[in-house]
Amino acid sequence: MSEKKGQWSSKLGFILASAGAAIGLGAIWKLPYVTGQSGGGAFFLIFVLFTLLIGLPMLLSEYILGRGTQSEAVTAYKKIAPTKLGWAWIGRLGVLGCFLLLTFYSVVGGWIFIYSGLGISGAVIDPATDPTELFGKVIGTPWITLVGLVLFTLTNVLVISLGVQNGIEKANKWMMPLLFIMFFVLVVRAVTLDGALEGIKFFLWPDFSNITGRALLEALGQSFFGLAVGFSCLVTYSSYLKKDVSLPNSAGSVVVLTVLVSFLAGLAIFPVVFAFNLEPTAGPGLLFMVLPTAFGQMPFGEVFLAMFLLLFLFATLTSSFSLYEIIVAAFMEISQKSRLLLTVLLGIIVFLAAIPAALSSSVLANVTIFEKSIFDATDFLVSNLMLPLGNLLIAIFLVHVVDKEFVKKELLMGSQLGQGYYSTYRILMLVVVPIVIVFVLINMLLQY
């Protein structure tokens, strides 16, 4: 017999959980280094525009599907198009995408676990420690990366096994506010460093000369990755939502929080990068090299760094919770097995599948896929190909398969908005979203 379906206890709980799904590695870890590799301010501006014009409508679309059907991702598509079962593959693609995403996301989560422990011990900002060498040692030592992977996986299993209210919602309610407070502390210190102005200019002043088809794809992928849309994670999350909650207000809050954290992340990272002559194109290790440098210049830097790393870990976990939840919820629906059993099994499978990515900077460093490491190839496949494809399919489904009145009713229910808002949403979904996604994908293919 299936377990009783969970629900969010409040509107705030849902917003913080949705924001938690979005605000994690996408905004804090990935956006700074992708921005650094893609030209700075122009890339960030394009990312914000994509987030508002494409990410926000897609976020609303997943909310509409989830709350309207009160079902997890795969079942939601089946309920709306029962005679056209092929559409359920959008949900299945989402489940597969979440799984693949977890295989490299969990690796980075493991790095953060290790850094959190080192931060508490004070080893990260020891004057004798070179941040670049320390990061190379962490990711290049097999047993260290595997220990981090185990710790990250176990934490996810524990929280997801507790369910929606007792696990995910409670974790988010205190993690997210604390993260914002620590971010403000870090930003204030970063922008007051000597030489910080060059970093601020790099991050905020648009220079479109460095924008290529690849950069456009990265910006679109970052928008989707940052909002956690395209894999139907938020279809599952919103299926636990009560009918009196305003979807536009909730989606707007999540987008504002995501853009704000992305903005703060850039202001926290790039002033430090330029103040200490670091390389903005350093890649995935950028954050881990910058943080010790920044906090090392602060009074009580060890304490602040330890706190920030722990909160960064929490933000990473809140995102991974949504990835685990969509998979667990889908298999609970079809197998009728307990949440605990399915969560444990998933944790074991994710751990085993993540081992190649975890070792791609050490014993598997020479193994490449299309000239990329296993870690980078998985990241590219998920972020730059599967996420845009997933969003394109959801957009087509919403506009051409789902009944217009169903969409309109769910979109406006619980809000004070009217026909104008619905009409704008529909035009974006019908024209802007698919055209931009197809254009960016074609542009990217022409670059290769």
From TrEMBL:
Keywords recorded for this protein, A-Z: Membrane, Transmembrane, Transmembrane helix, Transport
Coiled coil stretches, renumbered: none
TM region(s), chain numbering: 12-29, 41-65, 86-114, 143-164, 176-200, 220-241, 253-276, 303-328, 340-360, 380-402, 423-446
Keyword Cell inner membrane annotated: no
Main location: membrane
Topology relative to the membrane: Multi-pass membrane protein
Signal peptide boundaries: none
Pfam families assigned to the protein according to its UniProt record, in alphabetical order: SNF
InterPro entries: Na/ntran_symport, SNS_sf, YocR/YhdH-like
CC per GO annotation: membrane
Compartments in which it is found: Membrane
NCBIfam families: Na_transp
Annotated protein name in UniProt: Transporter
Species of provenance: Lysinibacillus macroides
Taxonomic lineage of the native organism: Bacteria, Bacillati, Bacillota, Bacilli, Bacillales
